[in-house]
Write a structure and sequence with these properties.
There is one protein chain. The protein is an all-alpha fold and 262 residues long. It has one domain (2-137, 175-261). It has 14 helices and no strands. The protein has helices spanning 2-5, 10-30, 38-43, 46-60, 64-88, 101-124, 127-136, 139-142, 145-152, 159-164, 177-189, 194-211, 224-229, 241-261. The N and C termini lie far apart (53 Å).
């Protein structure tokens, strides 16, 4: 059993998640023309797997600041491309371009940073650092205020202003919502206890099923299998693979789907 548990490295995890992700996005773009539901079932474990990988990456990286800047830049670039493609390559009502996992990863990593500050404050018995870490946790929440405010106005502001607000990282606009960001942080906080990480994933999957049994999202629980098989090794370097492949395949599928539906 020990040998089985040490059979998958980080590179293998990334490749597995990337393959399943393609199936999921094929369904997202082509379900109006009959793409089968099993494609999106295969894609449900993808987000938890990538969040798990992100927690590992944040722990092992030599330059956390550089990682966070890279995620933020990728999130902003994808926001721009989403707006541009949505404006110039008009989809049908059934095809929606709203993917931006980079935003979720960035917010999740922010909370990983806050968690480390909190833990360091406790270990060093520095009350000010503990309080600072707790207060910083409210920043991504308070950052939702401008967007909420404009949606409550009787007269909406210019479209460019509304779109500009999407560049402010916050828990309201991230893909997957606050639950996915929280899952990433818990993966990080519990990284020394693999079974505890899986228990959190199982618990979240149960909550999702109870609240929305008709949704396939609960199937993310199957991410527990590759997570349990992860051996803690990096594997072959694929540092920029996700940053390129993720948006590239989404936009390619989107363009094909729009042309196919026109």
């Amino acid at each position: 059993m020990t040998e089985i548990k040490k059979s998958i490295n980080a590179t293998t995890l990334k490749i597995l998640a990337a393959v399943l992700m393609v199936f999921d996005h094929v369904h997202q773009m082509f379900w109006p023309v009959g793409a089968p539901d099993w494609l999106t079932w295969l894609g449900r474990p993808v987000f938890p797997i990538f969040l798990f990988i992100m927690a590992e990456s944040f722990y092992y990286t030599h330059d956390r600041k550089k990682l966070m800047i890279r995620l933020l830049m990728a999130s902003w670039l994808m926001t721009v491309f989403n707006f541009v493609l949505g404006a110039f390559i008009l989809p049908s009502d059934d095809i929606v371009l709203m993917n931006n996992a980079f935003s979720t990863f960035f917010v999740s990593v922010l909370y990983m940073l806050f968690w480390d500050m909190f833990v360091e404050g406790i270990k060093a018995k520095k009350v000010l650092k503990i309080i600072c870490a707790i207060l910083l946790c409210f920043v991504p929440v308070l950052a939702t205020a401008p967007l909420i405010l404009v949606t409550t106005l009787e007269t909406l502001p210019p479209l460019w202003l509304i779109r500009a607000l999407f560049f402010i990282p916050n828990i309201l606009i991230i893909e997957g919502g606050p639950a996915m960001a929280a899952l990433g942080v818990l993966f990080y906080a519990l990284r020394s206890w693999r079974l505890a990480q899986v228990a959190v994933l199982v618990a979240l999957s149960i909550i999702v099923y109870v609240n929305s049994p008709e949704s396939a999202q609960w199937m993310m629980v199957f991410a527990a299998i590759p997570i349990l098989l992860y051996n803690g090794e990096k594997g072959r370097g694929m540092k920029h693979f996700f940053y390129i492949f993720y948006p590239a395949h989404i936009y390619l599928l989107y363009i094909i789907a729009v042309l196919f539906s026109s």
